[in-house]
Amino acid sequence: MNGPWHLELLEIEMKVLWHQDDHGRLHGPEELVLAVATEGITAAVAHTVPDDLASHLLDLVTQNTPSSPDRPPHVLKECRVRLLLRE
What we know:
By secondary structure, the protein is of the alpha+beta class. Helices cover 43% and strands 14% of the residues. The chain is built from three helices and two strands, in the order αββαα. Strands 1-2 form a two-stranded antiparallel ribbon. Strand 1 and strand 2 (40-45) form a beta hairpin. Helix 2 packs antiparallel against helix 3.
């Protein structure tokens, strides 16, 4: 059974595995965490990432479609570059 609830379950799992503040921002060493389901991609961004960049990264992720299950999502490379360029 496939459905949009897979992505919702992954969002819940992300909140369990990675501590997030009241705004959904990560409080750990990770700057970006992606969760991929057949129907889409979701993400969480660290509280240390500037708000404008965090918003842009989340837009990039949610607007992209997942790649094949055996490969990282295509958007991951662009997110990494944007995170590196801010430093």
